[in-house]
């Protein structure tokens, strides 16, 4: 499962709103947990959060929060569930200014890291710090700089595949 995700999905550009909202949501749920846990639960998250349709999630009410808190198939963290609903509403609000995808991609750095070992892979960047701050200003929650760097890696904004990896540059965003 992890190998398939790494080889086919992680680091590939995400340019659609639903896809970006899903990645943002799952990165928030991953905070403090392993990515393997979130990936195993991803089908349940998709069912529970209506395929991460921002309009649908933005309309969630307290009954939905209770339903989600009772769903043992997902991570039942009240703060993260409420943040996902808050972030859906903020995503809808960003549409009048170009949308979530354009907003997140606007923090793409001039260059991408070039790690030669796992120890050299950064966990934050000036851009992830700025993205986190800007998203919070727009009303988003659970969007710290480390979580936003993980999002930037996941959606291809930065390429932290090791130099020499068969995946390095495979997104087409970065040629090195």
Automatic annotation (TrEMBL):
SUPFAM superfamilies, A to Z: DNA-glycosylase
Domain of life where this protein originates: Bacteria
- A Pfam family hit: Adenine_glyco
Query: Could you tell me what this protein is called?
Result: DNA-3-methyladenine glycosylase I
| Organism from which the protein derives | Ornithinimicrobium faecis
State the organism's lineage.
Bacteria, Bacillati, Actinomycetota, Actinomycetes, Micrococcales
């Amino acid at each position: 499962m992890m190998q398939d995700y790494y080889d086919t999905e992680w680091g590939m550009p995400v340019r659609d709103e639903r896809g970006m909202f899903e990645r943002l949501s799952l990165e928030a749920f991953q905070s403090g947990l392993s990515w393997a846990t979130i990936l195993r639960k991803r089908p349940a998250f998709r069912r529970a959060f209506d395929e991460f349709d921002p309009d649908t999630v933005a309309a969630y009410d307290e009954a939905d929060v209770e339903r989600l808190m009772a769903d043992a198939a997902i991570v039942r963290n009240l703060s993260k569930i409420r943040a996902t609903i808050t972030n859906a509403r903020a995503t809808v609000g960003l549409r009048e200014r170009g949308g979530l995808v354009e907003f997140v991609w606007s923090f793409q750095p001039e260059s991408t890291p070039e790690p030669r070992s796992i120890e050299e892979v950064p966990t934050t960047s000036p851009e992830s710090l700025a993205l986190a701050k800007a998203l919070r200003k727009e009303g988003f929650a659970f969007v710290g700089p480390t979580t936003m760097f993980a999002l930037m890696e996941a959606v291809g904004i930065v390429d932290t595949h090791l130099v020499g990896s068969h995946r390095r540059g495979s997104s087409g965003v970065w040629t090195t």
